[in-house]
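Q: Hand in one record:
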Amino acid sequence: MNILKNYKQKILKEKKMTKKLVLISILIAISFSLSADPKGEDIARKSFNLPEENDSYSMATMVLINSKGSKKIRKLAMYSKKTTKGTNSFVEFSEPADVKGSRFLTIGYDKGDDEQRLYLPALGKVRKISSSKKGGSFMGSDLNYFDMESRDFSDFQYQYLKDENLDNKNFYVIEMIPVDENAPYSRQIAWIAKDNYFIYQIECFDKDKTNQRIKTIAFLDVQKINGILTARRMVVDNHEKNHKTLLQMDEKKINIGIKENIFTIQNLTK
């Protein structure tokens, strides 16, 4: 009798647990449907659906400017290539001597966490960037490892905020909340042009402190190269540290058939 009684209690407990899980699922679905913003999603989707390059190559100049106005100038080469899994990228510094030979690899995954590795000649070994460390500074710049990844529509939840005019250009302003729990930002505010749906500015807010705006990324000198809208300059203002990073594409080539063997761990230590 005790065995039968225990069995009935187990079945009853499992039924209650099942009902509880169903109820939780329903509440989550209702919450998501209430928070979903069709206008914000539509604007973001049109931006993410803009034509993209299959691959690209850039020779670039990076300028680091501190609070006193002192500058550090670096030269680097940047490669990217879309694959069936995501977007891969490879960065190599050539100047000055203290960063020459430093290389950075990202293996992109549309579904899942991107894989990132950094090679510093002074250390003579490859270091893997863990998911929890993607808020760290990339080579002393105001870009972090999260910024160096390619983003997809599914990486955020969206909310339309307002229409705005900036420098005589009309924008949609939308809030983007990262889905990735390891993202260093609580949210990002994107300024998307009404005429071409290109993102011209992103404001980034810290999730670990007081949700304050910690930096602003501006995309400037936007041009069409082989039919692809491309920013030739990027300015990153770090409001926390009163520091700035400028990135100028001195040479930019799109869809030139870049080889896949560039995006390998072996190429980091060549």
Observations:
- Residues 2-35 form the longest helix (34 residues).
- The two ends are 74 Å apart (CA to CA).
- Confidence is low (pLDDT under 50) at residues 24-34.
